[in-house]
């Protein structure tokens, strides 16, 4: 698997917003009585987040989602706190991320904040977005 992944160029990986390694689910988790968020509740959150984005970009022709925002919009819409800046700086250095990955992380964190109905991007939104950059990490798929 690693040999195959090594054939994918960095610039191509940079253009993929979410990198998620899907591992087999353990029997103990499958048989657990723990309650998870229901699909209809997730659907409601997604619809609400899309409405938030539609309102945000109503004046921007051709833009209807966070993934489509321009660099200028990114600076205006994806403002993060000092704690968030520090978290992102550490991730950029440790994962050796590109400027394009930086933009992608901010856009994904804005979407995560929208799904949480949060006006601001919080450090936990950034942390979740950073974890979706798993293909940028050494040893992925090992």
Task: Summarize the structure in words.
There is one protein chain. This protein is mainly alpha-helical and 142 residues long. The model has no long low-confidence stretch (mean pLDDT 88). Helices cover 56% and strands 0% of the residues. The protein has a domain at 38-136. The protein is globular.
The largest pleated sheet is described as: none
The total strand number stands at 0
Rg over C-alpha atoms, rounded to the nearest angstrom: 17 Å
Order of helices and strands: HHHHHHHH
- N/C terminus separation: 8 Å
- Secondary-structure-based class equals mainly alpha
Mean pLDDT: 88
Dominant shape? globular
Number of alpha- plus pi-helical segments: 8
Task: Report the oligomer.
Answer: single chain
- Classify the helix fraction into a percent range: 55-70%
Per DSSP, what share of the residues sits in E-state strands of 2 or more residues?
under 5%
Could you name the ranges where pLDDT drops below 50 across 5 or more consecutive residues?
none
